[in-house]
Design goal:
This protein is an alpha+beta fold. The chain folds into 2 domains: about 5-85, ATP Synthase, domain 1, CATH 2.60.15; about 90-130, Single alpha-helices involved in coiled-coils or other helix-helix interfaces (Up-down Bundle). It has helices at about 90-105, 115-130, and strands at about 5-10, 15-20, 25-30, 30-35, 40-45, 50-55, 60-70, 75-85. Helix 1 packs antiparallel against helix 2 (about 115-130).
Length: about 140
């Protein structure tokens, strides 16, 4: 059994990370889960949420937007629509997105077609604010 996981995180636009880590925590469609070296193979879908990974005493955080997470032989492959490292997120812009989505939702009923669109935008913005708050801003 290996003592590290090789994690590859990819979006349609770029390879975000390829790094060896000690553990990973992510937000799956059925809830949060963790992966350590030696984990059984599995495949799951990811929802809008946070991914964190640990290497030694350092923990890094990312905001993810939908995708898939696969573990096989201590290799983790993560394919997502978007991924932002905590220190890449513009906190002011993320907070403004929260406000815009909340204001738009106030004008709609849950049955309106546009309501779900703004609900998802709010969820993405809230995760971005949460993750940005964990940035190691030096």
């Amino acid at each position: 059994m290996a003592d590290k996981l090789l994690m590859d995180l990819v979006t349609p636009y770029r390879k975000v990370l390829s790094v060896e880590v000690d553990e990973i925590t992510a937000t799956g469609a059925l809830g949060e889960f963790g992966v350590l070296p030696g984990h059984a193979p599995f495949l799951t879908s990811l929802k809008i949420g946070e991914l964190s990974y640990k290497l030694g005493n350092r923990v890094d955080h990312l905001a993810l937007n939908w995708g898939y997470f696969e573990v096989e032989d201590d290799k983790v492959t993560i394919l997502v629509e978007t991924a932002e490292l905590a220190d890449e997120i513009d906190l002011v812009r993320a907070r403004a997105a929260v406000t815009r989505a909340e204001e738009a939702m106030k004008k709609l009923l849950p049955e309106d077609k546009e309501f779900r669109k703004y609900e998802l935008a709010l969820e993405r913005a809230l995760i971005r604010v949460q993750v940005a708050g964990k940035a190691d801003r030096r």
